[in-house]
Amino acid sequence: MIVLLFGVANYLVLDYAIERADSFVAETERTLVRNEFSHQIDQVVQYQSQLSFWDKTFAELKDGMPGDAFVRDHIRDWMWADFGFSWMIFTTPGGEKVLGVHRGEKVSERKAREKLHWVSDLTLKAERAYREALSPDRGGWQVKGAKEDPDLLTPALPEIHVSGMRLIDRVMSIVVVQAVIPKSLYVPASRMQPTLLITVKPVSQKMLANTERRLGVHDLGFTPIVTQEPGLVMTPVGADSYNPMVASWRPNMPGTFVWKSALPQIAMFVLVFAGVMLFVTLRFSALVKALQRSEAQNAFLARHDPLTGLKNRSGFDEEVRRAVRKGESQPFSILALDLDRFKAVNDRHGHAAGDAVLQAVARRFSERIGTLGSVARLGGDEFSVLLTGAFSREALLELAEGLVRDAQVPIAHDGQLLAIGGSAGIAQFPDHGGSLHDVMVMADAALYAAKNGGRNRAVHAGDMGSEAVAEAGAARAA
User: How far is CA 414 from CA 304, 320, 349, 363, 411, in A?
Assistant: First the structure.
């Protein structure tokens, strides 16, 4: 019975793990497929914008629809030949004027209007986006430009295009609709009524095959949204609520492979129960220890500066909050420190030298503070010290001046001595504030008073007059 229960337990655990793995793989592939089609839609938008966001097209539409020469040179021999747009339709809002081109050839107005019927919601959205982007300018209208993003590899376009995925001519296609505008984004008052350009890019079998190869999926295609077929993963693409089709494919489920590989192992585990239990115990123990080490490392990194090993702002704030909670029975002090001329070291000798300076100063500060308190690097060249317990003004000044001297000792790096300085400000709880914020503010005010007084010195908050506090606070705010 014990052996049987052990085997059943292994089976249930493995079955659950496989189920979760299959679910994770399916969700990952859904994200990949959605992102892939989103990228393809963005490409189609870029291709279409070469015609819709072009002075020549805008000028061609001045007196109506494009002429035969324009259709031949720029639609048939360019857009159809290079990008494979099966349909390109020019229309005015309401469909008063319509011109359609199918596979590079002009078609009758009736056929063009038939296609417009299937994308009427997109044309309405595109017209609305165009009008919302207009603002009065120089007797005409200015289209709101796009925000440039230096991280994008493609040029930013005005946010007046609308896209979706539709079943056109029984083929899933990417549809993009945008008003034709000039590069200057200026639209004369007489041309405020837009001409919309609708482009249809079929998703060909070659495109699907290339996507399959890139993503590592199988049988990628499109299926009605109501389809219920075991083993078929589906996800909507294109963010088009009117699209009744979804992308579908056969996922790379690891479950079958895992079952074939694991069942013999389960049988062996049942036969050699004692050895397996010992193995599992050891492996589980190692995993738990690894997780504990990982959690401990993550907790340490969350509260410590990776360069110097000191507490960071988050870790320092936690310690100070604990000190505040104990403040009624145990006072504490805050020392705010700032390195002088540190930026000059970075600018002249590079960031590697700056890192060496920060590490050396952090080590000196830690050695001087020892068990008296905690040292933290709050960011850049800013340091702070928390001292718990009662300290006299003289003791605090002596300690802070020692820290300032530590910062002044030259640091050897790459065959040269790097010289900086330091300033310090001191505040005590509860003498200089009844809250964490007040004490920190007073320590910062004393620090800035030290800087304003000539740097390379320490100032106690109790030695500052109200005017000095206000002046230091104003400098801090600036």
Answer: 27, 37, 10, 19, 10
Cβ–Cβ under 8 Å, residues 385 and 373: yes
Report the helix count and the strand count for the chain, using DSSP H and E: 14, 19
CATH code for the domain defined by 313-477: 3.30.70.270
Task: Report d(CA 126, CA 112) in Å as an integer.
Answer: 18
Return the number of other C-beta atoms located less than 10 Å from residue 30's C-beta.
18
Give the rounded distance of the alpha carbon of 242 from its chain centre. Answer: 29
Distances (CA, A) of 321 to 30, 33, 310, 386, 397: 45, 47, 17, 11, 23
Contact 195, 181 (CB under 8 A): no
pLDDT tens per residue across span 207-247: 999 998 888 888 899 998 888 888 888 888 887 777 788 88
**pLDDT tens-place string over residues 407-424:** 999 999 988 999 999 999
- The phi, psi pair for 46, rounded to 5°, reads -65, -45
**DSSP-based three-state secondary structure for 154:** coil
